[in-house]
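Hi team,

As requested, here is the filled-out complex form for the NDP run. I kept the field names the same as last time so the parser does not choke. Let me know if anything looks off before we queue the next batch.

— J.
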Amino acid sequence: MTAQVIDGKAFAARVRTDVAAGVAVLAAQGITPGLAVVLVGEDPASQVYVGAKGKQTVEVGMASFEHRLPGDTPEADLLALISRLNADPKVHGILVQLPLPAHVNADLVINSISPAKDVDGFHISNVGLLGTGQKSMVPCTPLGCLMMLRDHHGSLSGMNAVVVGRSNIVGKPMAQLLLGDSCTVTIGHSRSRDLPALCRTADILVAAVGRPEMITGDWVKPGATVIDVGINRVERDGKTRLVGDVHFESAAAVAGAITPVPGGVGPMTIACLLANTLTACCRAHGLPEPQ
Ligand code: NDP
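And here is what came back:
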């Protein structure tokens, strides 16, 4: 292996320490940032994520409000809950865990969250603000990726970035953020022609496809930085293992730097959620935002 492994777990711990310090400053003024997480249904992966979010929210000194609703909760009840959370001054951030059950219109639900409390950054107003380079709530996973890239490279200006995946929650906002940092950005997807050749043009390669170990070392430009967003559960030797969208061993033999799975992008996502909640709280109280 030649690549430097980017330690997202350690980086996330530093981000949480900074967030906790910001929370302590607010506490001295009698303000407690609050994050409400709404989970509908029994999806096992979502249960794990929501549990981890609640635990880390409390650990940094914030208030955590968990709303676990049955899978058959009517859409109208969910909208009514969000309306109450929008009006609750103790709640500064609202996250609705995705995916939602099929009978619920996810776009309608997400767009019913007050944009100021939309700590996932998925509300159409925040999407538009990000796309036009204005102050917004930035989606947590791409934000975590950007922070690791800036930490590793300093300036990203002029670098060729290829993002594989064009989802609204990862691929598209990732591309916007890289463009905002003056990368030359290409977005690949399932209809792209000769994706391996496209990826080999990348100084920065972000994989967000949801296909276990699809991107192998021969897709990677020597010395490139590879950010693996994928979280895939696979059966190996009778055990369930987590692997990314990148084949780690072969890619690490070629890349200059790479994020592992687990321990890369995943921990940064929750850390950025907490950072966004602190930001939302500061904005709500007209206080300076954390840097
Ligand atoms: P989506 O399924 O919404 O999007 C996947 C994207 O990958 C689509 O744009 C799709 O293209 C593209 N794609 C699928 N198959 C191929 C292929 N064979 N070749 C090229 N492109 C392909 O996934 P998400 O964006 O929500 O998530 C992506 C991955 O990131 C998943 O593994 C998910 O678990 C993980 N994830 C991790 C997070 C974290 O905290 N670390 C947070 C969120 C997601 P098309 O549009 O053409 O169909």
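Two things worth flagging: The domain at 140-266 is CATH 3.40.50.720 (Rossmann fold). The two ends are 35 Å apart (CA to CA).

Thanks,
J.
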